[in-house]
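Q: What structure does this chain adopt?
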Amino acid sequence: MSTVYEFRVDGALPDAARDAFCDMRIEELPAQTVISGPVIDESHLHGVVAQLRALGLTVVSARPVPSAGRP
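A:
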């Protein structure tokens, strides 16, 4: 079972970086970009963060998104 995570990075996401996260939702805010989508396990989580850093992005936060019906 996967958990939906929200990743916040400083600034805008370059077009080339968007391709790396094509299966995730991308929302641009004035000073940050929010990338959210399912993460299947801890290894996948670390991989997403590593990919963000490899693209030269500053990761501000990475957190699970509470789902409706979950305590």
